Amino acid sequence: MRKFWAVVRREFVERVRSKWFWLSAVLGPLVVAAILIIPLRLAASGGAKRIAVVDGSTGAFGRRVADSLARGGAFRVVARQPTRTGLLDSLTREVGAKRLDGFLIVTDATVETGAAEYRASNVSSLRDIEELRRVLGLLAVNGRLERAGVDPGTVRRAQLRINLQTKKISGSRTTGESAAESFWLAYLMSMVLFVVIAVYGVNVMSSVLEEKTTRMVEVLVSSLAPFQLMFGKVVGVGAVSIFQFAIWAVGGRLVLTHRAALVGSLTAAEPQMAFQLPHVPASTAAILVAYFLGGFFLYSAMFAAVGAMASNEQEARQAQQPVMFLLMIAYLSVFALANSPGSTYAVALSLIPFTAPIAMPVRWAAGSLGARELVESLGLLALGIVVVTWIAARIYRVGILMTGKRPNLKELARWIRA
Amino acid sequence: MTAPILALDSVTKRFAGHTAVDRLSLAVPEGVIFGLLGPNGAGKTTSIRMILDIIEPDEGGVRLFGGPGAGRAHSARIGYLPEERGLYRKMRVLDVLVFLAEMKGVERRAARHKALTWLERLGLAAWRLRRVDELSRGMQQKVQFISTILHEPELVLLDEPFAGLDPVNAQIVKDSVLELHRAGVTILLSTHIMEQAEKLCDELCIVAGGRKLVDGTLSDIKRTHGGRHLVIGLDDGAGGAPAVFADRGLVTKVDDYGHYAELELAPGADAQRVLQALVASGARLSKFEVQEASLNKIFIDLVGTDAARAEARP
Prior knowledge:
The complex is a heterodimer of chains A (418) and B (314).
Chain A: H1 2-16, H2 19-45, E1 49-56, H3 61-72, E2 75-82, H4 87-96, E3 102-107, H5 108-113, E4 117-120, H6 126-147, H7 152-158, E5 169-170, E6 173-174, H8 179-214, H9 216-221, H10 226-257, H11 259-266, H12 271-274, H13 282-309, H14 313-319, H15 321-332, H16 334-339, H17 344-351, H18 356-366, H19 371-399, H20 409-417
Parallel strand pairs in A: 1-2, 1-3
Antiparallel strand pairs in A: 3-4, 5-6
Helix pairs in contact in A: 1-10, 2-10, 3-6, 8-10, 8-13, 8-15, 8-18, 10-13, 13-18, 13-19, 17-18, 19-20
Chain B: E1 6-15, E2 18-28, E3 33-37, H1 44-51, E4 59-64, E5 67-68, E6 78-81, H2 93-103, H3 108-121, H4 137-149, E7 155-159, H5 167-182, E8 186-191, H6 194-200, E9 203-208, E10 211-217, H7 218-225, E11 229-234, H8 241-246, E12 251-256, E13 260-265, H9 271-280, E14 285-291, H10 295-312
Parallel strand pairs in B: 3-8, 3-9, 6-7, 7-8
Antiparallel strand pairs in B: 1-2, 1-4, 4-5, 9-10, 11-13, 11-14, 12-13
Helix pairs in contact in B: 2-3, 2-4
């Protein structure tokens, strides 16, 4: 047992001592923060697009469109001009010369049939297009109603917007989480789980590979059982990842408490908009930790076996592909999982041990989960860990002493049976 | 005779398609330097791995320190230097030594103390906090050698300890081996360099193709497989020497020049008896020399014929 702890200790100390650990401890949250902040910042600063409105309408429609867009903040209307020959060409040249971001063409037909045109250097910004569509739609409806003789006051009253509040029901309690919060939390968790499991799994793999290529493993295995060595590695590297999480959590806490100041300096957006993740309930955190540990042990065992199979870095990189792919299935399904956490697909993913570690926290964050489902999933995951670790240990035991050709599936099967 | 410190009992190990070690038995008495000799692929490393419990034999058993159970149960009493060497490249020298000693069950603080003593002794004290990959190859090998013996094992297994060493480092290893020997440590060393084995080993076992060809003390092996030639010089009176030469119980072949003769001993005959017979016959000897074949020659004869036999097999 003392030898086992010595292995754990070595893995932990050597890793925590390295530059890379501290680099990722600092850079990790920065990258996550960047992922959260940059789109908002881009939307906020680059949002005011300079556009011209080409007004082909006979009434006040064109003016109302221009005013409405200017009020929205996403666009700055630099000019409103009536249609004339050559105008479109000259505006197009303006856009080409980057003096203008684009122009909107409205006519009476916009009110009647809904036809309008927006030409711009960038038409892929969903946010902008959505804003145009909303403003045009609203004003077109107004125009149509007015033409039909409806009193403008009635129209205004008819247009009072719905303020839909979303609150998640967890268990049978209503929580303060909003839909957006839930989604972002789910997405962020899947990302963190994926990255951390992959990174630390690969760490276990290279540790195994190092001992194999230097033949240290022969000396070690003559002193302690291969399984003890493999498990010691997994626990040691796992401890590093927990430590990493702890650093991130403390760092994240600091960022959150000072977020107003931070966001104020970085973006023009309102602070409460920038961070939609302040609310992580304890139950969510517990589930995150439970599935992270489960996923880590499951995948580390597989990565250890991969490391034992390979004779050099290059081979290992190839051999790890199937494991990575397995891990990626759940990660790539995160949108499907968040959108319909109750679908058959989602349920299947959360029962399969290989996908459950990412799928379940996402489903938990996105929607409510029954206790029974949680127990089933965790039970299967635990069973999966035992079976996979057993198989991985068999492969490990033989693989660490083998050099030369990578084993094919038939040979692997023999290693496992041996 | 005391029980051997290490014994293999008809140990067999097969790998996919071939038998790496075939019913190998050997006994290593306490305190000797035992040579496990054989060409590449003879099964030396596989045998050592079975002794250490790194792999399990398919048949047969290993006994260590007079009791059952292979290496891992006794790991604190065994030191092992594998054939291909390496250390954790990114670790500090001292940390590597402490870790490996811990693997052998040495308590952390004691391990640290011993490691420092050894580093001092081999002139590496200044390097203790450097990373392993900053050391020269020779220094790394010294560090590895320290790691093999730091926990003061009673039995040390050295797999090809001289492979890849320059003459200076080979000398250092040889001196260290002899020092351990003087301290009463039993050493099993595998090698295919016969000159080293001949100088170092008290007992040896030659294996080829996974099978034992011969084992015993160095002098026994030389007597039975090498020392069959006598060179004899005679002063004026040959006396009864020709009669002795003609005794087919002692001599099978003679090349007599009158004052000088080369004899080939009969199977089972002892050179000492020839000497006694010659003295008794009244011959005046000016020279009596048992010509020993070198271990190298014995090895090549044995392994060569074995290899030839192996090729002759269908």
